[in-house]
Structures are given as C-alpha cells and as structure tokens.
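TL;DR need structure tokens for one chain.
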Amino acid sequence: MSGNRISPILNDTVAKNGFYQENELPLSILNDFESAAKETRYEISDNTRRVYRSSFGIFSAYCGSHGLSSLPADPRSVISFIGHQKDIYQESNGHQLSTQTINSRLAAIRFFHIQAGSPSPTEHPLVIRVMRGLMRNQNRIVSDYDQQPIMYDELELLLQAIDERKQNLTRKRDKAIIQLGFQGGFRRSELANIKVNHLSFLRDKLKVRLPYSKSNQQGQREWKVLPKEEPFSAFDAIKEWLFAADIKEGHLFRSLTRDGHQIRDYQVTDANLGKGFLRGDDIYQLIKRYCNKAGLDPQYYGAHSLRSGCVTQLHENKKDHLYIMGRTGHTDPRSLNHYLKPNE
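>> reply
TL;DR here they are.
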C-alpha cells in the first residue's frame, strides 16, 4: 500500500527536510506507527502546551493584522514581532515585557513550526542577534524583582491564615500543600502530580518519589528525603490529610466540594487526565490566595516562593550546596545562586 495511507503529513515533512523517503510504506506497519505517534502527547506538559497556544495566538494575531503568514513565518516577521513586543507597556505595572516573556513567545513559534515540519524562523541568525542584543539592553523598563522567598516567618503567617478556615478538610489539605511545597522545594506542577504511592513514611523521614520533574524528564529515579524533625515538617501534615480524606491511592491533593466537607469524585485516564484532583494552576491560585490573606503582597509572593524559600532557608540553616541540591533536585550548583538572596 502507498505510504500516503499511513501519514501524508509525515511524508510532506520528510520531503521538506531532506530525509530519505521510501516510495511506498506497507500497511502492515500502520499499528506500529500509530502506537509511536501517540507518544507525542507527552512531548511537553499540558501547562506548556497551553502557554504555547496562547503565545502563538498573539503572534498569529500580529501577523494577521499586517497581512503576514504566521505558519510558515518569514524571519523578518518574527523580528518585527519582537520589535512590537519589546515596546509594549503593561497596564498592570507600567513595565515593558520581560525578555523571558518574549523568549517564551519565540519558543512557541519554534514549537509550532517544528510540529508543522517547517524550518523555524527563530533560528535565523538575525533573529538570534536581535534577541542577544535585547537581553543586554539595560535601558528597558522591566520588573527588577523575582518572587520573594517564603521562609519560616512567612510560612507561619500562611499557616495561621489556613487555620482561620472553618472546614476541617480544607485546613488539612492546604496545610499539607504549603508545608510539603516548602520543605521539599517542589514546583507547583510537581506537587500536583504527587500520588499516594510516591510517599514512604519512615521512622524519622518522609520520602517522596518524583517519577518526572522539570530537571528529570526521562523518568530517572529521583527521591526527596524530608526529615520529620525539621521545623514545619510535612510528615504529620500529610498523614493527617490522608487520614481525614481517607485517600488510599491516586493523586495526593484532591478537589473538594464547594462547602469543603467532602472530596469530589475522582477519575484519571492513562494520559493523567481526569477530574477530582488539583492541577498546578489550582495550587498557584491557592498559594496566592493565602498570601493575600496573610498580608504578603501577591505581587511579590507566589507558588515559586515556596521553592525559593526552601533554598534560602536551608542556606541560612548552614546547609551546603550538595545538601540543598539533593532537596530541590537542582543539577547545577550555579542554579542555586539565583535563589541565595536575603529575605528583605
């Protein structure tokens, strides 16, 4: 049978990029091909996919308003888009878009071009030169702060705000999220993906297995070892939440009914889709909400403040870089320098 029976899109991609192409592909490999093709759903996280769709939508709208093609796109269109984006002033704070934000939008352009089998215009030498210059431009008015670290003092304020909640399940769950996020230096996506079978309660420590993380996307074995006797340890908080919610398997952090008295119906498919459990964005909003209640300006504090606070607090506790990296999962000690700043 003709190869076109299997994938015309693949054949076009192969031809465009100069790969060897069979004249015909047998129908007998159809199931094998489709089985492998399904793996592309795991290529990037759901959150990254949402960000890319939004960012590419902004680029497409810009191209559409000027009669330009967005896919495939001319490198000069991308350069013009950079010029437009770098001069935008945000109404919320009067600052220009950060280089990181613009880079994220270029990453989206690159992703959709690769998906379509077209060379990415973001790889053009002039685009690279423009971005290199933009990163060194010190005259732009951009936000000059990162999220501030949540350390012991701030953590106590957050826990006091949680204690004001009337619903027992809500208090138990939210304390477990905050304390585990802080002690383990977890990213919000990592917190959302923890399952009950990832936890091991030992005599003096809690071990949390991470099947995947931002720095471990190939599923290598990774554990976080969290001492039970450390200040604000998550050990008892997690146990109390599991007991109160009667959770024996599946996602650790579940959605609650509106009145906060019951966990919602839980269902998960093989693609980690489903209902009844918190996503990374839910945890982000939850932490922002408690920061606001605790009097911590949400402009300066967020979900990443827990991870930043873990690093900064361990550093102030005189732990060395290797110990901190073992806790957070950083693979390069130079990455810690961004976090090691005083909590002012």
